[in-house]
Amino acid sequence: MTDTTDDLSTPLGQNPTPRRRLRLPFSLPQAMGFLLGLILVVFLGFVFFNHDPLGGEPKARVAIRQAPVSDDKPAAIRPPPQQPDSAAVTAPSANGQKTITIIDGSSGSRQDVVVSGPGPDAADAGSVKAAVGGDQRLLEKSRHGMIPVAAADGLKPFKAYAAGTEADRAKAAKMPVVAIVVGGLGVGATKTTDAIMKLPPAVSLAFTPYGSDPGRLVAQARAQRHEVLLQVPMEPYDYPDNDPGPQTLLTTLGAEQNIDRLHWQLSRFQGYVGLTNFMGARFVAAAAVMQPFIRETARRGLGYLDDGAAPLSVAGQLAEGQAMPFARADLIVDAVPTSVEIDKALARLEDLAMKRGAAIGMTSALPVSVDRIGVWIKSLESRGVMLVPLTTAMLKSKSN
């Protein structure tokens, strides 16, 4: 049988024309290789023939103007002026207040402190400078920072940072005196500032080691001539349900651990005359843990104020063996925080001063407390009682 397949695809009697396929001069892989090679050649040419050693790095043009130099003598190269250890710059304002900027020459840190009332700028600046960094003779380095210590020449923080003048102390020796200590400061800048600015300088202020910037607030208090104490968090009976805060001194810790925690607290700010307890009813009643604490407080030249809230406190008897300044508060002024009860408590405090020669009251910085104390103080001396800083009352109580 004859094969007629080819004849069916062409006209009858014609020979079929063979089909031609289009062929490229190179394959697809060859084309890709050629293209990559071309890119590489262009890149290498740019690198070798372009006179830019930075190779496309970001650039910035800075115009430098050179000061004219005399042809006679070359310009002297002077080292930059040395910064002092610290400096105080005072800027007066229209309302009688002054803003003192303390500049730490070593770190460059700045602290602005507002000072009100009369007084020479240099004296204000000096008091603020001492409050910010403390007297360098009365500081030593710990693993937590600088902490107070008695100086080699016998000077102690209790005396160095005490408020008041010799004339005030001589006057206080001849009449009944009252000291008011406002505690719980440093946490809450508004209430702390109110206590600093609204209460007279003879009112002493106690700061907790907490707060974002306790050093600045303490510096402001010292600039206003308030005497300052550090409140040390101690274990209460209902701890840990009632927790004073981080680094609290505990009856379950050894002496070395509690002293290390105390050093952390001591390093938070400087310029204080002594310590007082923050809570701590269980801790102050345990002689085994209070004895190392009292001994360390005395060694560092600080006084100690027992807030009087714990009847079983052993602080007084332990302090007697250390020959250190000590006092116990007679009452909590705002135990019941109403105007009527605060006024009654202040009257009792005044009566105690008349009978014994000296009395000490503790209070918080509640607005009602600050207001009622401010009113009471205005007429206090007219009734024969003098308001004094805590250190004056402590020394007078000891001499009685």
Description:
The protein has 400 residues and is α/β, with parallel strands linked by helices. It has a domain at 139-398: Alpha-Beta Barrel (TIM Barrel). It is 35% helix and 18% strand. The protein contains 13 helices and 14 strands. Strands 6, 7, 8, 9, 10, 11, 12, 13 and 14 form a 9-stranded parallel sheet that branches. A 3-stranded antiparallel sheet has the order 1-2-3, covered by helices on one side. Helix 8 crosses helix 9 (287-299). The longest helix is centred in the first third of the chain and has 22 residues, at 28-49. The radius of gyration is 39 Å and the shape is elongated. The termini are far apart.
Mean pLDDT: 81
Helix content: 25-40%
Oligomer: single chain
User: What is the ordering of alpha helices and beta strands?
Assistant: HHEEEHEEHHEHEHEHEHEHEEHEHEH
What gyration radius follows from the Cα positions, in whole Å?
A: 39 Å
Number of helices: 13
Strand content: 15-25%
The counted number of beta strands is 14
**CATH C-level label of the domain at 139-398:** Alpha Beta
CATH topology description of the domain at 139-398: TIM Barrel
Principal-axes geometry comes out as: elongated
End-to-end separation = 149 Å
Low-confidence stretches: 1-13, 52-90, 100-109, 117-127
CATH homologous superfamily descriptor of the domain at 139-398: Glycoside hydrolase/deacetylase
What is the SS-derived class?
A: alpha/beta
The biggest beta sheet is recorded as:
9 strands, parallel
Secondary-structure arrangement, i.e. CATH architecture of the domain at 139-398: Alpha-Beta Barrel
